[in-house]
Amino acid sequence: MDKLGFILFVVGVVLAVVAGFVELAWAGWVLAILGAVVGYMNVSAEGRTGFLIAAAVLFVFSTALDGIPMLGTDVIAKIMPGIMALVGGAAFIAAILAVYESLKD
To answer: What is the pTM of this model?
Structure first.
């Protein structure tokens, strides 16, 4: 399962990069669903808090590189929406599982 989750994550990152440069109307939904699957398969109960903090930091600072002319506005700005969809789906599932685990006890 861990290997499949890693492969799905890599596929999601590659799709996010491709979708940043090629118009794919369905890419956002596919990345969010792929992220949800990856979040369910890869984020363990022990690593959930760290993952959610890392996802929140990524969301907050996703536009921080916009000030760098060649890097921020051209490349990263095109790729980040796809990465955000992938990580957002995983973070959503991780947060739901964290709430479920806390209510279960």
So the answer is: 0.86
Q: d(Cα 82, Cα 21) in Å, to the nearest integer? A: 11
Domain count, the chain: 1
SS (H, E, C) the chain: CHHHHHHHHHHHHHHHHHHHHCCCCCHHHHHHHHHHHHHHHHCCCCCHHHHHHHHHHHHHCCCHHHHCHHHHHHHHHHHHHHHHHHHHHHHHHHHHHHHHHHHHC
Domain that holds residue 48: 2-104
The C-alpha atoms of residue 88 and residue 81 are separated, in whole angstroms, by 10
Cα 98 to Cα 105: distance, rounded to the nearest angstrom: 11
Average pLDDT of span 30-53? 92
What confidence tier does 64 reach under pLDDT thresholds 50, 70, 90? confident
Average pLDDT of the residues in 29-33: 95
